[in-house]
Specification:
By secondary structure, the chain is of the alpha+beta class. The chain folds into two domains: about 190 residues, Immunoglobulin-like (Sandwich); about 35 residues, no CATH class. It contains six helices and eleven strands. A five-stranded mixed β-sheet has the order 4-11-10-6-8, with no helix packed on it. Strands 3-5-9-7 form a four-stranded antiparallel β-sheet. A hairpin with a 4-residue loop joins β10 and β11. The protein starts with 17 loop residues before the first strand and ends with a strand.
């Protein structure tokens, strides 16, 4: 909610009914009046998912020591899945309703695919600083976050959504066209070719240029620009959301980015 141009969450991971070590200082319920003692307990919650995702990040770092934290995040996001083992769409465990990118982000992590994502969206420290400067923080606040003394915010994004993130959050309101440029780094073999496929609601036109990326070398970087056009101007004082995706693919890899569209009227 602080930065709606960045889609959150990023991913989801295993975390329901995990058998976990349990301190005997408290009972299984965690209540003061519960005097029972147990060495293990079944625990559920996002805090149980966190160590699994952290472990996967460590696994990717061990396999690719030169990858940045952003590259690791990108690999986990662009290879995540949104259909379960019955090939049905993911559902919210709370009420059984269909899940969406505002609930699962890019989807559920797939460790095997993340080890070889094909392409990654990398982000440098300088780009993160430009992002922070675009959020309206003071120079001192940015310095506190990045731990660097020579910050001037001379370079900042016009739109926080310009950050080279592996997902898109498109905000329509008083504007009908939103355009972003992203940069992909090739971590697949040399001479790899990727073609783009887009999916979105009928109310939004999506165009990507170029539609084919040819990587001659490992580590080569290529940019593409995507334009989102709201086909109809909506009226009223409502917030409406729809979803789509942008996929760069070839027979070996599918590099998928979730997209959320929001119409906000005040």
């Amino acid at each position: 909610m602080v930065t709606p141009q960045i889609l959150k969450p990023d991913v989801i991971g295993p975390g329901v009914n995990i058998l976990a070590g349990w301190s005997e200082a408290i009972g299984p319920t965690g209540l003061v009046k519960d005097t029972r003692k147990t060495k293990f307990n079944i625990v559920s919650g996002t805090s149980m998912s966190c160590p699994h995702i952290s472990g996967l990040a460590a696994l990717l770092k061990a396999a690719h020591p030169d990858w940045s934290p952003s590259a690791i995040k990108s690999a986990l996001m662009t290879t995540a899945y949104t259909r379960d083992n019955t090939n049905s769409s993911l559902r919210d465990a709370a009420d059984g309703s269909l899940s969406n990118p505002w609930v699962h982000g890019a989807g559920h992590v797939d460790p095997q695919k993340a080890l070889s994502p094909g392409l990654i969206y990398d982000i440098t420290t300088k780009q993160y600083i430009s992002f922070l400067c675009s959020l309206g923080y003071t120079i001192d606040q940015v310095k506190t976050i990045v731990k660097r003394p020579n910050i001037t915010c001379s370079k900042r994004f016009k739109d926080p959504g310009e950050l080279n993130y592996p997902s898109f959050s498109v905000l329509f309101g008083d504007k009908r066209v939103v355009r972003y440029t992203r940069e992909l780094t090739n971590v697949s073999p040399a001479r790899s070719i990727y073609k783009v496929a887009v999916d979105g609601p009928s109310s939004v036109g999506i165009s990507v240029r170029p539609r084919t990326l040819v990587f001659r070398h490992v580590g080569e970087k290529k940019r593409y620009t995507v334009s989102f056009v709201a086909k109809r101007k909506r009226r009223g004082s409502t917030v409406r959301s729809e979803y789509g995706s942008i996929v760069w693919g070839n027979p070996q890899h599918q590099v998928k980015s979730p997209v959320s569209f929001s119409w906000t009227f005040l």
